[in-house]
Inverse folding.
């Protein structure tokens, strides 16, 4: 494992490009960027199109929007904060939030992070640069910090009676900036970039962002998951691990066959970005569907001693 | 195991503490952000600022549906809570659309959907804030604010005052009435003075006083009581005038009952050190006979 990694240096994906060609080795990345940019473009150019044709494709922003003057979409996270702050939303707001919640419940909550969120582009660039420039280490920020942040944002809404988090939320600030006028929101993009580039790898999306935390909870039973269905072909090249924004979730499904782990990546922190599929030369991964709330069984029941080790690993 | 558990709990507490400190700072800042700058006006139907900040999700749907590009979303360093809609009356006032599209568009209750008549909206209250600058107070004719007012003749009326400079002209003074002013800001935009307007829409919490409900206004009480005064009539004033002569303080001035008889000069004890350049006649009746302003 280590030898293979050292041999290749810090250029994950090189082998995949050589074997599958550049396009196939970036298939999901390209699709993701297309998705992110076209959603942005849709919001940015809709007012302009409406001026010419009087048809509103979509208006508003990710907090709440209206598609073709009919379909309301509302971010359930901001709506929950609003309700906690003591405000009762109107019907369109609730309907919009339900549509969004059902969508992410089905396709995976953090699909929002990797396929929609504009900040993801910034943090991906920071992580890519870190790998490229061989920057290692940095501050240790626990992966679960985001859930604390999530909890405190909800608590703040309740205590202050205002949606306090929206005063500093970089995700909505950047999207709103791009669609309604940027002002000094460039500074916030820079701050998130520097945080991820200098302070700690994947610090924002992987440890701090409560929006991602909320959507990961929302999609914890999602139907769409990545499965390391051919994990026996894995040659331990570590490429998937190096590109994964949530490295901790790959290990057990990929290498845990002996311990009885199923090959499906069931962790709700997986963003369904598909980058592991891109960089894998052995076609280990693919998208699969599953039935929500159905427990995925362990392949073979581990002995008591193994169970103990697993618990410890989960804790640590 | 115990050590691991201890470490886990310790780490969790550290994280909770750090996030808690951050939240405390954000919470304090959120209090600060409630201070809506007085030049920023919320859209029609907006809840009171405290409630508004809990309800508005910063989506900008009201901005998109505003046909006049009046509304803007607050950006960083604007004196308005980030991402919330507002307008600046001096630049672009609210045109008071009859169908109030901004309110209809709002997906939350931040803009009150029970507002259906735009004339009922209270975005703020216009105040003639710079009376020195307002040319009406200088005795010039203007009335631009009065003429552009969409609730014309009700929200702003023109009231006359004596122009003491000339002594013979009236000043046509704009007076705002909170009973009808919607705070749309058309007057503020149209005001002809340079730079800042002499009439400005202020947030209601700043502009509208609590009034003086503890005062009972005699004339209103009299009206309520069917014309019967609640207080005893004033004792008649004695003017110490010559016989056949009366004085009406309310305007008529000196009244000589017997027109045939000219009142004789009242003998007034002469002041010994009377200065010669006094503007007043030595006969006090001359002063009383002079009509008009004093």
């Amino acid at each position: 494992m280590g030898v293979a990694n050292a041999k290749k240096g810090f250029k994950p994906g090189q082998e995949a490009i050589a074997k599958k060609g550049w396009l196939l080795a970036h298939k999901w990345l390209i699709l993701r960027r297309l998705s992110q940019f076209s959603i942005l473009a849709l919001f940015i150019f809709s007012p302009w199109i409406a001026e010419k044709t009087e048809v509103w494709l979509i208006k508003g922003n990710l907090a709440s929007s209206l598609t073709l003057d009919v379909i309301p979409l509302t971010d359930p996270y901001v709506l929950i904060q609003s309700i906690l702050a003591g405000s009762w939303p109107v019907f369109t707001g609730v309907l919009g939030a339900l549509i969004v919640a059902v969508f992410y419940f089905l396709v995976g909550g953090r699909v929002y992070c990797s396929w929609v969120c504009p900040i993801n582009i910034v943090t991906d660039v920071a992580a890519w640069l870190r790998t490229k420039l061989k920057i290692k280490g940095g501050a240790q920020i626990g992966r679960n910090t985001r859930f604390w942040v999530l909890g405190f944002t909800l608590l703040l809404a309740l205590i202050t009676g205002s949606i306090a988090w929206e005063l500093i939320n970089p995700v909505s600030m950047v999207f709103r900036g791009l669609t309604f006028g940027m002002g000094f929101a460039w500074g916030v993009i820079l701050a998130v970039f520097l945080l991820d580039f200098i302070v700690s790898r994947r610090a924002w999306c992987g440890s701090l962002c409560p929006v991602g935390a909320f959507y990961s909870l929302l999609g914890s039973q999602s139907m769409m998951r990545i499965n390391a269905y051919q994990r026996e072909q894995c040659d331990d090249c570590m490429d998937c691990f190096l590109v994964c924004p949530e490295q901790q979730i790959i290990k057990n499904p990929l290498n845990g066959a002996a311990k009885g782990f199923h090959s499906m990546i069931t962790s709700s922190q997986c963003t369904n970005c598909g980058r592991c599929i891109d960089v894998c030369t052995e076609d280990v991964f693919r998208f699969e569907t599953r039935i929500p709330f159905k427990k995925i069984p362990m392949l073979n029941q581990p002995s008591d001693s193994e169970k103990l080790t697993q618990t410890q690993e989960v804790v640590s | 195991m115990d050590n691991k558990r201890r470490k886990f709990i310790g780490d969790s507490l550290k994280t909770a503490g750090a996030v808690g400190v951050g939240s405390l700072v954000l919470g304090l800042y959120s209090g600060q952000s409630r201070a809506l700058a007085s030049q920023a006006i919320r859209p029609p139907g907006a809840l009171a600022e405290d409630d508004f900040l809990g309800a508005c999700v910063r989506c900008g749907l009201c901005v998109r549906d505003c046909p006049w590009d009046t509304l803007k979303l607050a950006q960083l360093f604007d004196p308005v809570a980030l991402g919330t809609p507002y307008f600046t009356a001096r630049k672009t006032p609210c045109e008071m659309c009859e169908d109030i599209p901004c309110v209809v568009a709002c997906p939350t209750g931040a803009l009150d959907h029970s507002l259906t008549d735009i004339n009922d909206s209270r975005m703020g209250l216009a105040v003639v804030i710079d009376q020195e600058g307002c040319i009406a107070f200088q005795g010039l004719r203007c009335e631009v604010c009065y003429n552009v007012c969409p609730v014309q003749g009700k929200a702003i009326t023109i009231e006359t005052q004596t122009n003491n400079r000339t002594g013979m002209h009236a000043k046509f003074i704009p007076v705002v009435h909170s009973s009808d002013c919607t705070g749309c800001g058309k007057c503020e935009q149209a005001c002809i003075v340079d730079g800042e307007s002499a009439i400005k829409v202020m947030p209601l919490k700043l502009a509208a006083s609590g009034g003086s409900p503890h005062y009972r206004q005699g004339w209103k009480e009299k009206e309520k009581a069917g014309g019967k005064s609640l207080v005893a009539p004033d004792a008649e004033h004695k003017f110490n005038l010559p016989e056949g002569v009366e004085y009406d303080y309310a305007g008529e001035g000196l009244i000589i009952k017997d027109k045939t008889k000219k009142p004789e000069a009242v003998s007034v004890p002469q002041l010994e050190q009377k200065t010669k350049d006094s503007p007043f006649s030595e006969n006090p009746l001359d002063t009383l006979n002079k009509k008009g302003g004093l």
Summary: Residues 1-8, 305-316 of chain A have pLDDT under 50 and may be disordered.
